[in-house]
């Protein structure tokens, strides 16, 4: 990205202070969101989300595996994000690894709940097939194709859309299995179980520039940020995860204020996203 | 020797195509707005995005060339692009080889002497792989370079062909490619009528090889016509938007 001149930086900061951003938005307005589902036919579920110039794809693949010995009644979920060099030349080779890891971990934190699996957006017990022996391993892959700021929100929205689109094949287990034997499983090609995605949270990133916070920052606005908080909120208004980025310190009262702003913004975002996903699924048929 | 019939007695392939029929092509220019040039190219189920950044200042001074531009290329596959989920999207040997192949092919056609001391980066990302990814990447890179306005001698197009059940087949998909028969990938400069890329695996008698290569070249020329149409359409759109 080409650097910003002092004049441009000043323009961005003053604009935000006056509630008028570079593209004319208000501080708490999102860019138009476009959702397309089912774009990767060989995955069990997939979606592409465009937020302005930010373009991300999420895909969900389910494979049969063995549950861990510590949690035999739960399936496994893993989130992995890759930043494609098409988004920025600096992501070439291993350059994008740091950002990819940061995004993957932040998403896992918001979607998967604590170490015991409690409070997860997706219920891992719904992924078990035969307790202790066979479970579904869910691999959620995100790919950043084009980056113009606010990657975390876009990825979370894409994952939510991809999970709404996911159909896990129905598995018939052969009747008699004893002891440590692996049961015979028959994966159906016809019937699919849809996921219940109402519990999946969205992520709202609030970027603090000067004294004010903005939602859905573009990469130019992100370059001016002092700090940012990404808050994951679900439909019930519960906070599911929190990440603070940026070196500047924040007064705790400001953090609480940002959380309440995020909850307020998330209601509109969830409604908008749900209607976009429903429209995308309808047009896919 | 597998007994699977890749060409049925009526002359239809596994996906219903005729032996000399290519898969459906679809191209879109300008998908990545931050890149200098970008394009999406689909050949059947194979879908590839190419983005070009350049000409710009050389990032690594030691690689600077005084009299012409440095061309770099990276090929990566998405985790979900193949049927079984891939663990390592970049850095494996196949990706490195394909990056090299695309770089050499595109370098031959870019007029690098017009942009000395600069760097052109071509990044190709495979979203869905169903055979012929090499060719789709080269076609997408051509479109992206044209979108970036980088001067070229000619467009480069690429197509693959094979030979199964005693029939030359154009544009193999993944199943046909994995069948163990020969796979010939050709890249040409259509107007200049020159071959810039030629790769083959497995074995073929020489006279049949000439047939198969000729078929692949015909495929390349058809793709070149399609690419020219897409570029013309794109230019008309730009003219229209500028109000000319």
UniProtKB/TrEMBL annotation, chain A:
Coiled coil regions, renumbered to chain: none
Keyword presence, Amino-acid biosynthesis: no
Keyword rRNA processing attached: no
Annotated family: Belongs to the RNase PH family.
Keyword vocabulary terms for this entry: Cytoplasm, Exosome
Protein name: Ribosomal RNA-processing protein 42
Exoribonuclease phosphorolytic domain segment(s): 30-169, 199-263
GO cellular component: cytoplasmic exosome (RNase complex); nuclear exosome (RNase complex); nucleolus
Gene3D superfamilies assigned to the protein according to its UniProt record, in alphabetical order: GHMP Kinase, N-terminal domain (3.30.230.70)
Entry's localization field: Cytoplasm; Nucleus, Nucleolus
PANTHER family with a match to the protein in the record: EXOSOME COMPLEX COMPONENT RRP42, EXOSOME COMPLEX EXONUCLEASE RIBOSOMAL RNA PROCESSING PROTEIN
Single GO MF annotation: mRNA 3'-UTR AU-rich region binding
Main subcellular location of this protein, as a coarse class: cytoplasm
CDD domains the UniProt entry points to: RNase_PH_RRP42
GO biological process, alphabetically ordered: exonucleolytic trimming to generate mature 3'-end of 5.8S rRNA from tricistronic rRNA transcript (SSU-rRNA, 5.8S rRNA, LSU-rRNA); nuclear mRNA surveillance; nuclear polyadenylation-dependent rRNA catabolic process; rRNA catabolic process; TRAMP-dependent tRNA surveillance pathway; U1 snRNA 3'-end processing; U4 snRNA 3'-end processing; U5 snRNA 3'-end processing
Pfam families recorded: RNase_PH (PF01138), RNase_PH_C (PF03725)
Domain of life: Eukaryota
UniProtKB/TrEMBL annotation, chain B:
Segments crossing the lipid bilayer: none
Any one GO molecular-function label of the UniProt entry: RNA binding
Alphabetical UniProt keywords: Cytoplasm, Exosome
A matching Pfam family: RNase_PH
Domain Exoribonuclease phosphorolytic span(s) in chain numbering: 21-151, 154-218
Ribonucleoprotein keyword on record: no
Listed GO CC annotations: cytoplasmic exosome (RNase complex); nuclear exosome (RNase complex); nucleolus
Source superkingdom: Eukaryota
Subcellular location(s) of the protein: Cytoplasm; Nucleus, Nucleolus
A biological process from GO: U4 snRNA 3'-end processing
Entry keyword annotation includes Transmembrane: no
Gene3D superfamilies xref list: GHMP Kinase, N-terminal domain
Similarity section: Belongs to the RNase PH family.
Official protein name in the record: Exosome complex component RRP41 homolog
